[in-house]
Amino acid sequence: MVRSLPSRSRLFDAALVVAIALVGLAVVIWAPSDDWYRDPSLFSALLVVASAATLWWWRTAPFVSLIAACAVFIVNIVAGFPVGITQYPAFIAFYAVFAFGSIRSRWAAAGLLALTVGVYAIADRGPLDVSAFVGIGVATALAALLGDAARNRRELGEAQRAAALLEAREQEAMRDRLVLEERARLARELHDSLGHAVNVMVMQAGVGRHVFDERPEFAKQALEQVESVGRVALGELDAVLRVLRPVDGEQRAAPDPANLAGIDALCDRIRATGREVDLRVEPVELTATAERAAYRIVQEALTNAARHSESGPIEVSITRENGDAVITVHNTGAALVVKGNGRGLVNMRERAHLEGGELESGPVAGGFLVRASLPLREDDR
Fold first, then answer.
1. Which of 81, 257, 370, 373 has the fewest Cβ atoms nearer than 10 Å?
2. Residue 323 clears pLDDT 60, i.e. is over it
3. pLDDT tens, 278-297?
4. Containing domain of residue 29, as a range?
5. Is residue 294 in a domain?
6. Is residue 174 a part of any domain in this protein?
7. Do the domain assignments include residue 211?
């Protein structure tokens, strides 16, 4: 396997090759040679340079570097020259195989080094010295251990970098999910609050326009209701915009009229359009978020009832049942027209599910029914 390295690493490799070559040439020129070895020559100097040059690939192709280093070492021994510096490139390349090579290349490197030591034992002209072979064994084991330690450190570093990258991606995904959830929440708020207000204003304005000549006082009340609902809608819109663009770097929560106490006002708005609304509420204790969900569900159900039917009473009830608050909005109006599952029904269902409850809706005998169940607060069950 050939690995690519940055230019700074290649400069280090070049410096290593030059340093070993210079040290080896100094030994050839100035170190005294024993009587049983050949005298230094140009050939021995070339072998020293070739041995150092094999380290040019010690990190990019360590097994190739080891083969070349062992080959030069064997040629040097067979030619009758002393070992000198030619043994060290082989140990460095052996270290590199254990640091960068595969398991198979490790076994192959061990076999190749054993073969090289065997040739050395047979072909070397000097007397066999047990201490020399002990030194070879120690150097081989040390190179293998250091190479394996370097591999472990590198793999640990890679695993840590991969874990950090994965964590960063998970955090980014979490941020994206939170942004999407916040957008969905704001979309529900805008749809439920402003959608309700606009529909009520349209209906009240329509009623006022139709009775303006015959019942001017009623028309005036309708216009007052339009103004009142419009002000409420502007307040809720301002609250949502404060969340989107907080003042002074702080997110300000909207003043929250969306609670069970505000359901009376919802019903009054629909009554102002000329529809009869029957409200029945039993005392129930809900969490703040569940109470808001209940308010929005009633709000959307009332809006749909007023939009999709022309007349008839609307029955709203909040009761206790098996540890839940059960909210029903029954539209018994005539000429009911249902246009499929719109965004409003989806929002109501999502609100119920987020609080651990359920919501069902659909046509029933004599109208359309929305029924939601939300868990009561723990201390009220």
1. 257
2. yes
3. 999 888 888 888 888 898 89
4. 7-128
5. yes
6. no
7. no
